[in-house]
C-alpha cells in the first residue's frame, strides 16, 4: 500500500539485482511514478529464481510492484534517444534517474547538459566502479567469521542480503533528500552510492571499525548468543525453539520474574561478586544464566512459556519457517494494514506488503502488482513525451519499443498457465 508523499515525482529506473529495484519500489510506495525501463524480452534478472513453473519470476515481480514498465531496444540509436528523452522530459515532475547499470549515454554529465536540474542516483559495487555484490562485500566485512560457528578457516555466510537492503533504503533516502532540495531551490544532484561504502559505513556506525582501528581483540563466533548482552535460543518441552533477549534492564528483570529466578540469580551474584543488572556482567555470565533459563524452559510447553513470558513482558520470539510465518503469524496477514492481497499475472493471488511506515491520518493507496514488460509503453510515450498515436505505432513497427504482447510470458501463454497451476520452481 502506498502513500502520496512523493506524488508529482517521476523516476526513470534502469536496474537489476536487488538494491536499485528495491530503491525504486520504496520510492513508488511513497507516491513516486516509477517507470522501469527494460529491454524488449526482459533483462538479466527477468527470469531469476524463484520462478513459477510457467516462467514468471517471483524475485522480479516482488521487487517491481507498483511501477510502470516500458520496453525499449537501446541497441538502436533511436531507442537510446527515447530513453534519454524520457529522463530529461521537461516539467517539474521528471528529470530523475535511478540506475545500477551505468552506460555512457546515461551519464549524469551528458543528461544534465539537456536538463541542468537533473537528479541521478547511480548505485555501484565499489566506489572505484569495480564490480561487487552483497555476497562479495559481506565476505570482506569480517562478519562471516563470527556468524554462527564461523571462523577464518570456515566462514559462515548469512542468507539475508543485508547490504543490498541497506543500500536500497539509503539510496531512496538520498534521492528523496535531493528531490526535496530541488523543489526548494531548483538544484540537481549527481548521487553515487557504492554498496561497499554502505556496508563499511554501517560498520563504522556500529563501532566495529572503531574496534579494529584501535587494535582491540577480534570478536569470536558466539553461535546464537547476542554479543555484549544476554540472548540465546532454547528448546521447549514440546520440541519448539525460542529466542530470548535481555538487552535492557527492564528486559532482564522481566526474564528473571517470568522464570522465577530471583533467588537463584541473587545467590550466583553474591558468590561470584557480579551484578547481572549490568549488561557486561550478563554477557560474561551468559552460560550460567542460560543454564538456569534453559532448565526452566525445557520442562514447559511453548504455550506455557509464552503465557509466562507475555505476562511478564519478556522480549522473546519463536523460531518458525517462512511457511509458518505466512500460515500463522498475524504480523504477516491481512490483519496487518501494511499487507494486502494482490493478483500478479503468472503468479496468482498472494500477500504483498506496501510501505512499512504508518502515517497517522494518511490514507494508504492500494498495492499494485508488478507490470508485464512494456505494459505501459504506449501510455508513457503519450503522457511523458506527448507522442501521437501514429508516431507510437511507427516505433512499434520499427521494433524500437514493445508492449506487453512481446513479454515472453504472454507470447508463450505461460502466464495464464502458471496462474492456473500455481506451480513453483525454487
Explain this structure:
The chain has 426 residues and is α/β, with parallel strands linked by helices. The chain is built from 18 helices and 14 strands. It has helices at 19-29, 58-63, 77-88, 108-112, 134-141, 162-185, 195-205, 208-213, 249-259, 262-272, 279-284, 286-298, 302-312, 322-328, 377-383, 389-397, 408-411, 414-421, and strands at residues 10-14, 33-39, 51-52, 68-72, 96-99, 119-124, 189-194, 230-235, 241-246, 315-318, 339-344, 348-353, 401-402, 424-425. The strands form four sheets. The chain has a seven-stranded mixed beta sheet with strand order 7-6-5-1-2-4-13, sandwiched between helices. It has a three-stranded antiparallel beta sheet with strand order 8-9-10. A hairpin with a 3-residue loop joins β11 and β12. α1 (19-29) crosses α6 (162-185) and α9 (249-259) packs across α13 (302-312). It is elongated. The model is unreliable at 415-422 (pLDDT under 50).
